[in-house]
# Entry
Amino acid sequence: MTPSKGRPLLRWATGASACVLVLLGAGLPAQPGPAWAQEAASAVQDVALTDVVLPLGDTVLKAARVTVGGTRLSKDELLTLLRPGPEPVAARLARLDAASLLIPDLRIEGARETVTYRDVVAKDVRAGRIAELTATGAVLAAEGDRKAAGSYGAFQASDLDLAALARLYAEPGDGKAAPQRIYGAFSVADVAFVDANGTAVKLARIQGRDLSARPVPGTWAGALKALTAPGLAEAPPATRAKLSATAADLAESVTLGGFEATGLSIQHTKGPAPLNLGIGRILVGGSDASLEDVVLTSNGIDAKLARLSLNGFSLAPTIAALRKLAAMPDATDEDLRRLTPVIGTVALTDLSLDLTGDPGAKSPDPAVKAEPMHVGLRTAAMNFGAPRDGVPTAGRVNLSGLTLPASAVAGVPGLGSLGLYGYRDLDLNVVADTAWDAAAKELKLGEVSISGKDMGTVRINGMLGGIGPEVFDPDAGVSGFAMLSATAKALDLTIENTGLFERFIAAQSKVLSLKPEELKQEYATASLYGVPAILGNSAGAKAIGAAMGQFVAKPGTLFLSVRPKNGTGIGMLEFSAAPTPAAVLDRLTIDAKAN
# Structure
């Protein structure tokens, strides 16, 4: 299912729910005064209204019968509140007082969508708020190019401020007012939608709490209509730029205390790309979110994920970039890169992928059946710092228990020969930790490593200098030129063997028809004498050769530390322009050790 297919359903359900709330509370008192408390009990009555029709912009609300219980308003006064007129709906919501509203069937008709709610009950309607709102369910239908059908079961909301909701949708604001609380809590069960493209969406339950928002320029209704209008991709650049500010207004105006959805199922059965997606639980609260029990099947992919979480997420950089784009009708891809939010920390647990290939793809040899491939990942944690020009300035990636067949890396340099050394399945850990120091203009490689079960570990630590803000420039020419001024200030390399070297020697011994010990001796000799000769026979070159020879003779740990003698670093251009390796090594202090 593509986002464009889901957008009409979201717009439809959002607008329909808002319209229901407006009708149910059309006209609440601003504040109950002392005079109300002194009125006689005989002034309270139940009023039945029939054939109620209330136009609200492009939407018409219809109810064959509405029973207003425990109200002090007469029938004529109630009908006046529900008739079309110049007075804003929010102002009417300040004048209705009732113990309850009962609506057996409430029909909401839009330009192309219709929603019918059953057994709607609003209790304790006071001062623009409904203490409790319920409905036993709803049926939805859409015609035209957005043809779809849907339903949902029991609906409930508490502490719902209808006046505030009406102001949001119908009255423009400056986007700077204090947020107003819209509801305390809501829940809806058994949600189901099906569109003409064959996409079916189901949810066992949705619930949320503590929604607050403030009015935006052009009203919420206008903003949502503009952002969900068809053909935005083909709209003039000036129109899209204006919508950037609209999107920023909406994103900045809402706060949500918490949201939870359970039993999500998305199925797409038509066309060449069938899809079956299931998510057991979705949680959103503040800057944190998580998905649990995720399953996905589509075109030869069978995936399962126990949990995916996001912590420390922030849209602040995105909102700031959207406001800048509003003044840039000719925005480039580089400008759009600045929309990157603060990602924070992404973590996942127990990922399983079974890849069998695209069932619809034609094989070059039908007689040969593609072997399925299983990829697993026990845990992963990815932490990203605040972005600069769309690029995170710090990050750490830690993958633990990455399992895959050796055949999957057959073409990867350095890993492609693992299958020849007797490895059928790989079990890897990967770490990459980097951080940029703006003041020092340095990029620290805290750790970049890869390790494998029954193989070993390769670990690199280092420091690059001369890394200014230009390196993050969206223009590839500017950032690429800036990297030319970078200097290498430190490099540490550690190699730990836990089985790979022995397998390498065993495989090469068979190829060369030598005994393993004989081959190790040849490699040790080549390391001791050949490496220094290649590197120029400097003191540093001899230290490297000696350490490599010791490692080959007794493969354990090899450590290499490199520092520039000038203390400031050696530039990238200096490396590339050096006539011989010795010309570079003479400028370095080298410490090499083994075991």
User: Anything to note?
Assistant: The mean pLDDT is 85. The CA atoms of residues 494 and 559 lie 5 Å apart. DSSP finds 15 helices and 26 strands in the chain.
